[in-house]
Inverse folding.
DNA sequence: AATAAAACATGACCTATGTCACCTTCTTAT
DNA sequence: ATAAGAAGGTGACATAGGTCATGTTTTATT
């Protein structure tokens, strides 16, 4: 029992270094640990659903979570993907709105939940936490605006190249020899919604990229084999 | 001289109630006033340019500013528009990046500039300011993700209807009889880049909306005359 | 292991919207 | 006041990529 509590403690979180609490002392982390609940989500389970009322902050310990928005016609778009060290649900929490998106585990994930009142208190008492939240939001915002521009200005081929490069940055595992495995489980359908295209179209370009030897496939996971060419094709914003 | 300083003081800012300093006392505001510079920008002047290094925070006192991103082919997209009470340049400031966008005055505007070191100190000392920054970022982020989904899931007609409704919320002046004047100067070209389309296409739909009596034009400014119909056509996300 | 269901893949066709060309109407500057 | 340059507007045409139909492969379930 004692053991289980300790293993859930923030001090031992595998993503401790990346999260918004990274600048806190062990003592301070202990206090947070005592105000949180840790949950394990199986692949496909939802943490919260668009329209729900937020009661607190989700803090990802491990696993990948997709954040999707459902449009009026029931179509889904992935707006971002969060990983260990990221927080989730902060947007709606701090603006006092209902959730405007749905969060679903892409794989088995470990997620902590911190009550609203408590996290607001922490943010007010610990400037480093506030600054880290601001920093994370700023980065997310930058990524979102960047995606917006891509969607305006680039064609599907360029957006796919860009997506693969982004996934390499966030989830790439170096296999040596300039090859990188994308360590994230996404269906073609999901990848398609990430760049705002139909899955048939996405599949066509994936095939093209394979023909061009820019990527390979190991089962369902993608391996990037020619990053240079991908960068060229992505037509990146200098 | 004394007068000019006083009229620039944050205590007298027309947007005092909307900004991130809205919860501060007069005394605290005075301190901020003494650490800022106020500038007047003429229509078309830029506050900062994509690629520049940020040195502080811009705080809009009055006027509308467009934030644009230039793609690799030199094409411009408006990613958001900021108004009195909004802050600008916070994203790059807090992530320590170069500016990833350009800010240009859409009309003569009054903008204050606060030095980086000082504003960081304020954020650490005054939790209310930190929370307001988080709140603004969260709202901007929500708007950005919403635009992303629209761009994925909606056609140009729907996006235009949505844009007009958003502009009504942010810049609408009630003319009575269910008519609202959009108090913001945007060219067709600019409106087109806001919804990610070509200006010819945008103009066609504007014409259609006029034919359908949903909007009118008073010179260059648009008047919304049938909000209900616009809402229907926008196919909003419930 | 067998079966069902989901995901992947490819072809044929269609349409929304981008592009180009051209004209008209406002702004702005001299 | 007038000229020059933006901005607004419209038609003709081309095409990227969406949709639908169909088949194959992979994954999950009993």
């Amino acid at each position: 029992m004692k053991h289980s509590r300790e293993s859930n403690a923030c001090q031992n979180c595998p993503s401790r270094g990346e999260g918004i609490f990274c600048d806190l002392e062990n003592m301070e982390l202990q206090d947070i640990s005592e105000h949180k609940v840790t949950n394990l989500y199986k692949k496909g389970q939802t943490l919260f659903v668009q329209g729900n009322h937020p009661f607190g902050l989700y803090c990802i310990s491990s696993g990948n979570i997709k954040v999707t928005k459902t449009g009026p016609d029931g179509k889904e778009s992935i707006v971002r993907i969060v990983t260990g060290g990221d927080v989730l649900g902060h947007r709606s929490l701090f603006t006092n709105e209902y959730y405007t998106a749905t969060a679903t585990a892409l794989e088995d994930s470990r997620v902590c939940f911190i009550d609203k009142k408590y996290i607001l208190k922490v943010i007010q008492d610990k400037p480093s936490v506030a600054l880290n939240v601001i920093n994370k939001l700023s980065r997310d915002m930058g990524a979102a605006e960047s995606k917006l521009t891509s969607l305006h200005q680039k064609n599907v081929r360029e957006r796919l190249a860009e997506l693969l490069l982004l996934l390499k940055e966030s989830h790439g595992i170096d296999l040596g020899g300039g090859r990188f495995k994308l360590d994230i489980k996404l269906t073609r359908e999901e990848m398609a919604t990430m760049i705002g295209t139909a899955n048939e179209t996405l599949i066509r370009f994936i095939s093209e990229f394979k023909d061009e030897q820019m990527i390979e496939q190991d089962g369902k996971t993608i391996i990037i084999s020619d990053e240079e060419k991908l960068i060229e094709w992505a037509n990146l914003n200098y």
